[in-house]
Design brief:
This protein is α/β, with parallel strands linked by helices and 333 residues long. It has 2 domains: 109 residues, no CATH class; 201 residues, 3-Layer(aba) Sandwich (Rossmann fold). It has 11 helices and 11 strands. β4 and β5 form a beta hairpin. It is rod-shaped. It starts with a strand and ends in an 8-residue tail after the last helix. 32% of the residues are buried.
Amino acid sequence: MFNYHFENPEFFWLLALLPLLVLWGWYKRKKVAPELKYPGASSLAASRDNWIGKLRPLLFVLRLAAIAFIIVALARPRTSEENSKTKSAEGIDIVMAVDVSTSMLAKDLKPNRLEATKQVASDFISNRPNDRIGLVVYAGESYTQTPLTSDHKIILNGLKDLKNGLITDGTAIGMGLGTAVNRLKESKAKSKVIILLTDGENNSGQIDPMTAAQLAKEYKIRTYTIGVGTKGVAPMPVSRNPLGGIIYANVPVSIDEELLKNIARETGGQYFRATDNERLESVYAEIDALEKTKLQELKYYSYDEKFMKFALIGFCLFFAEILLRFTLYRSFI
């Protein structure tokens, strides 16, 4: 009963009639107690005092219980189950532009810059289930690894497949940014974002980075730029040995932070510097906090009506009372 919700609780006022019915039944029984007295009926009179006769008040109890159950049925008891569904009230489309040049194999982040970026970016994607995300890769040129999609398994698989050497080496920041803008310019999302990550200076490509930034501004696309690499020197790949293995040497880290800051400023974004794995994680966490998706929670309820079983019990009790009154207790009426 405590789990039930009553749609028409006003019917419970009828329960106040039960005490009145009890008083009326008691009064009627005291006033009218018919007996059959005639010669030779001593055995019948004696039967009034046996156990069946003593249980005769049970008829009245059955009637009261039947009335009570019918009243409960009229109050319409039912159980409810609350369900909720969350949907995006203001969608965000995000394109991640990732540098895959040879310098991204530097080991100042563990195990290297590229693998650290892939891991942190994977966590970022997993934490944004309501957004569409795309992936652009660039080095000396750029291409779309994965177009905008809400199927994050596709994005994560595309990110997992990233590696150095698939395209011409170099750092074409303008090309990477321009390709990302091209993926977002037709987007109908209320918020459009590019996260551009690099570890170097623009040294190739046919698009000037600031020209790409101005295009992003025109299409109202915020760009967050991330410079990856420790300050000072880092173990960078410089050549290969005869077996094809990479030879590392400590090389000064050179990131065009001024360019990255200007791109972010032009588009209304921010610039971040990630000098180690922990800082790279915190950078993506900051971007995640800055670009919060507005969610709308829809609640709906499913109801299971329970009045029928109370009504059925009440009618069964009525039937039992009538059956006993006109069979077993007929001689006492």
